[in-house]
Amino acid sequence: MSDAPISSGTTTTTAPFTPAEMSAGRKLFAVDWEFMAAADTMPALPKMFGVEIAVAGRSNVGKSSLVNALTGRDGLARTSQTPGRTQELIFFSAGERLRLVDMPGYGYAAAPKAKVAAWTELIRAYLRGRANLARVYVLIDARHGLKDTDAPVLDLLDEAAVSYQVVLTKADQPKPNELAAVTDAIEAALKKRTAAYPGILTTSARTGAGIGEMRAAVARLMAEKR
Ligand SMILES: Nc1nc2c(ncn2[C@@H]2O[C@H](COP(=O)(O)OP(=O)(O)OP(=O)(O)O)[C@@H](O)[C@H]2O)c(=O)[nH]1
Ligand SMILES: [Mg+2]
After folding, report:
1. Who lines ligand 1 at CB under 6 A?
2. Which atom of ligand 1 lies nearest, measured to the CA of 67?
3. Beta strands per DSSP E along 25-170
4. 4, 63, 119, 124: most buried by Cβ count inside 10 Å?
5. Tens digits of residue pLDDT in 81-123
């Protein structure tokens, strides 16, 4: 099998997973997820351990909701209709090997300037300097697609050679043809990007669509890291 990007033309570009991978994903996440630490500065980060994955994305894109859907624990990560809810790096752990990090959103223009600067600095420093960060899931709202504010983060990940994969959120909202158009546009934009992992995961925290596939994607990643 080639590792070429999965082309769309359909409403989902989630890479196909074997039943064994789906089952591994289920098992991986069917543990007691716990809040571990919150950090608003680099020195406050917990010690590096095991495999870390992070969800990044524009403010209000659905990062915290996705964390709750993946872990199966409603209310583990705090969500809100108001952008700017998550203001620190929030670490969740599942046993010894896997950590999941909920990040503050970027691109929230209405927040106080000093706060935006502090968050941006923290996001950049973390994404750049975390050696055990195995993959960053860059969340993109399925209604809107890539925005200008996503570019600096993708640039940084490419520069730092941190592997990332795009995850569409709120896939329950657009019509199938709109979803397909957004997916195609993102795939075209990612072709030029060096650290982008092939394939887009399409999810809805609301309906649960694609959550099993995303768990399987993380299980595949963990298997690669063994
Ligand atoms: N329709 C729909 N709405 C969603 C979905 N996931 C999240 N939302 C809504 O999007 C809003 C933002 O969700 P959060 O999970 O708090 O977003 P966030 O990216 O963590 O936001 P910040 O922490 O502020 O950056 C909330 O009103 C959620 O209910 C989804 O799958 N479908
Ligand atoms: Mg949040």
Report:
1. 57, 59-65, 79-81, 83-86, 105, 169-170, 172-173, 204-206
2. 15
3. 34-39, 51-57, 89-94, 98-102, 133-141, 164-169
4. 63
5. 888 888 899 999 988 789 999 999 998 877 788 888 888 899 9
Paired tokens of 181: 């158009």
Tokens 């994903």 belong to residue:
25
Q: Which CATH number fits domain 6-224: 2.40.128.90, 3.40.50.300, 3.40.47.10, 3.30.930.10?
A: 3.40.50.300
pLDDT in tens, 151-209: 999 999 999 999 999 999 999 999 999 999 999 999 999 999 999 999 999 999 999 99
> E strand or H helix at 71, and its extent?
helix 63-71
Please report the atom of ligand 1 found closest to the CA of residue 205.
Answer: 31
Asked if residues 52 and 134 have their Cβ atoms less than 8 Å apart, the reply is yes
Give me the phi and psi of 61, to 5 degrees please. Answer: -75, -20
Within a 10 A sphere around the Cβ of 189, how many other Cβ atoms? 16
